[in-house]
Amino acid sequence: MTPAPLLGIDLGTTNSVVSILENNTPLTIPVDGEKLLPSAVCLTDEGFIVGKTARNMALLEPERTVLSVKRKMGQNIQLKMGERSMRPEEVSSLILQKLKTAALDYLQLPHNTAVRTVITVPAYFTEEQRGATKQAAEMAGLRTERIINEPTAAALSYGMSQMNEATYAVYDFGGGTFDVSVIESNDGLVEVLATTGNNHLGGDDLDNLLANYLWEKFLAANTLSNIKPGRKEMARLNRIAEQAKIKLSDATEVNIQESFFFKLNNINYHLEYTLSRQEFENLTREKIRETIEHLQKAVEEAKLKMDQLDGILLVGGSSRIPLVSKLISENTGIEPTLVNSPDEAVSHGATVQGAIIDDLDIETILVDITPHSLGVSALDEISLREKFFNAMAEDKKENKKKKNEEPPNLKAAMIIPKNTPIPASRTKLFHNVVPYQKEYNIDIYQGEGKRFAENRCIGEIVLKVPKPNEEATVEVTFTLDLNGLLKVTATETTTKQMVNATFKSSRGIKVFKAKSNQPAILPSEVTQNTLLKRAQDLLENEKIESEDAEDLNKLISQLKKALNNSDKTEIENIEAELLDLLYYLEEN
Ligand SMILES: Nc1ncnc2c1ncn2[C@@H]1O[C@H](COP(=O)(O)OP(=O)(O)OP(=O)(O)O)[C@@H](O)[C@H]1O
Ligand SMILES: [Mg+2]
User: Fold this and answer.
1) Contacting residues for 18 by C-beta, under 8 A, at least 6 apart
2) Residue 103 contacts residue 131 (beta carbons within 8 Å)
């Protein structure tokens, strides 16, 4: 029996990419005719739309659209989309569902075919963020063969597995995250030596800085002050900022002109500004400098000197910013290399990892590492015993409250240190604090702080011992699987009685049931009609000037014609024009 198809998926903050192995080479599968699918989801009256049209809809209906959902992954929150509220993993699963459908169409397989995936996550992603990604895949009906780190995937796609005695730093600066990994390859053994980064540093942050800057310039030019941009203006400003930023990677200056940008007291204001690369660099230098510090730290953690690297590989859209290469070469003495197809490299690497799993590439062994230290809370001074004893005597709720009030008493007892190769299993022994202790609350943390409170608490297990002894030992075992996902068990050893402990569902690591009524997403033909419908509604229901109505009618018939002719470029051009007009008319 042939195994289910295996997709390499890069679920990105800004763009997502899906690829398969064809003739032993990774191949990107087009989605809506493009290699990159914008990671945008919008709820329309007809249902969910995912991709470019959804990203455009963020301008018209920001409250019904979710962009950059990856930045919210792992958080216990609901995202509002119109009348619906969804968890971040549910929104991500819609993006994955769209990728899966495109792949099945490409492979000419029915939509209910079982599909496997190797899915990538930022190397610096936490336990909760990895878990949420896996859940999103499950909800989209994908079986996760492996979760791998994005820089590692990029290194595989660069062909590192075929290299001998090669060491590279992979610098991945994307839309929402920044990661750097130091990777070594020797005779088909690819080993990650160190990894670091920031899960909230990417192109989105640069866009925000620039959007706020442009707003200030706009206010100053029009002698306005103390006005905050609304959600719609902010969405439009972010789009303008991103476009300007991308242009500044090639040009030294960009002319920004947005007609009918803002209306106040019946006066229309336009946004006009000439932005220089120098200004953009001044605004963003600090953020980019932070990435260089991470790069230096990763090389240090790998116990290497910069000149021992064979190169620095640049991946991710934001690494195209000229200041990135400039600061890297100034600070490291190495001229970095932008990998081929930097936007597809991560997804291709996931496909290569799929081939390794399926034994199609039996030469390579990949050893990745855990990006964060993991451990449990523990008391560190005998003098605290009495305090703890008193707390134990009180009711459980009270006990908890006390513990929360006094976190400095707890130290961080590390079990698996950062940069440990995975899979890994480590055990540490702990002793009872009070004689005949019946219950142990074990808080699990992730991070590098010495005190428990300085770290991120990702879960808690409660170990109950019904017939305790005066003296007792608790064995805590942490097991990290190949996906970097953690399992914890605690056993009380003195009674020789095995006690199983499981995570509580209320905290970071949780039991999460996939919903069977997964919402449907609409195919792209339907989504293109959304704009048409809005334009028609506007014509029928609103009082608009005859000149505007004429423009609208013209664009509607042009778009219909382009759709009939399946003329992609024409569709996009008219769509953009129609969007601007709708934005203006609906606002006024
Ligand atoms: N030429 C360019 N110059 C500057 N920035 C660019 C350029 N091209 C793309 N970008 C930016 O790169 C980012 C998208 O990059 P990419 O597709 O690698 O991110 P992602 O994979 O979606 O995000 P992440 O890896 O953080 O989850 C966006 O912020 C985009 O504006
Ligand atoms: Mg990326």
Assistant:
1) 7, 8, 9, 10, 28, 29, 31, 37, 99, 100, 102, 103, 347
2) no
Distance (Å, rounded) from C-alpha 217 to C-alpha 92? 36
CB 52 within 8 A of CB 528: no
Q: Alpha carbon of 223 to those of 227, 234, 269, 274: distances in Å? A: 11, 19, 11, 18
Q: Which pLDDT belongs to residue 509?
A: 36
Q: How many residues can be counted in the chain?
A: 588
Q: pLDDT digits over 144-175, tens only?
A: 999 999 999 999 999 888 888 999 999 999 99
Residues of the chain with pLDDT below 50 are 381-386, 395, 402, 406-408, 501-517
> How many other CB atoms are there within 10 angstroms of residue 338's CB atom?
16
Identify the CA nearest to 30 among candidates 44, 41, 15, 42.
15
CATH of the domain spanning 6-149: 3.30.420.40
What class has domain 374-492? mainly beta
Q: Identify whether the C-beta of residue 80 lies closer than 8 Å to the C-beta of residue 41.
A: no
Name the residue of 318, 325, 338, 348 whose CB sits within 8 Å of the most ligand 1 atoms, as the mutation to test its pocket. Answer: 318
The domain ranges of the chain are: 6-149, 159-338, 374-492, 524-587
Task: Give the C-alpha distances (Å, rounded to integers) separating 449 from 297, 408, 434.
Answer: 17, 12, 27
Beta bridge partners of 502: none
User: Cα(105)–Cα(137) distance, rounded to whole angstroms?
Assistant: 18
Q: Could you tell which of 9, 13, 148 is best to mutate to test the pocket of ligand 1, judged by most ligand atoms within 8 Å of the CB?
A: 13
What's 159-338's CATH class? Answer: alpha beta
38 ligand 1 Cβ < 6 A: no
Ligand 1 geometric centre to CA of 326 (Å) = 18
